[in-house]
Amino acid sequence: MIEANDIAKASQIIKDEIETYCLQGLSEISTCRYLANKYDCYWQSLQKLSNNQIKSCKKATEISQKILEKHL
Hints:
Strand content: under 5%
Largest sheet: none
């Protein structure tokens, strides 16, 4: 089961990856679209997760679980 600190960890992973790609010259939207393919999620959900704007706990949990599974 995913806990709140797991969601925070997934959010930080996405923030770090977005920042890394943006520093290389890619736009945030392009980066999120790339990461959406990598983590099999919607790009807008990843963007919202990185900004802590997801209002649904279920959605945040689902996305975080995918990120943590594929990141490790």
